[in-house]
Specification:
single chain, 9-stranded mixed sheet, 9 strands, elongated, DUF4362 domain-containing protein, DUF4362, signal
């Protein structure tokens, strides 16, 4: 028969193990990458847009590379109400603004992601990304 002390120790070990596993879970931010028109991870756009529509907090990083290789990152953080966006070239933040919503719009040959009703360092609607309609999004 299993003793009471053994069960207590087993419970504590299981509790500690589950706490450690929970702390080690990945908290990575979804990314979309644009290398001079060669897009990666376009499938990460739809979950972000859907989460904005239903009010679920989410984050997305859009990373593009300039002609000379400089990294330009738009960090989008949706808090359940507004999208907070910051634009970084290299390390420093160069623009910050808040937007009401994100919307994907399909045109004849392209799809664009817009941030709508922005205020801050940028005012109005912003086309964040545009990619060819035939790109692998799914």
């Amino acid at each position: 028969m299993i003793g009471r002390d053994f069960l207590k120790k087993l419970f504590i070990i299981m509790l500690l193990t589950s706490s450690i596993l929970a702390a080690c879970q990945s908290n990575e931010v979804a990314q979309v990458i644009n290398r001079q028109g060669d897009f990666e991870n376009l499938q990460n756009l739809n979950p972000f847009i859907e989460n904005v529509k239903v009010g679920t907090p989410d984050r997305l990083h859009y990373i593009s590379y300039g002609e000379e290789g400089e990294e330009i990152t738009s960090k989008l953080v949706f808090d359940g109400n507004k999208i907070k966006s910051s634009l970084h070239v290299g390390w420093p933040t160069i623009e910050e603004y808040e937007c009401e919503t994100a919307e994907k719009q399909e045109f004849e040959e392209t799809i664009s992601l817009y941030l709508r009703n922005c205020s801050g360092d940028f005012e109005g609607d912003l086309e964040l990304i545009s990619y060819p309609l035939n790109s692998d999004e799914d």
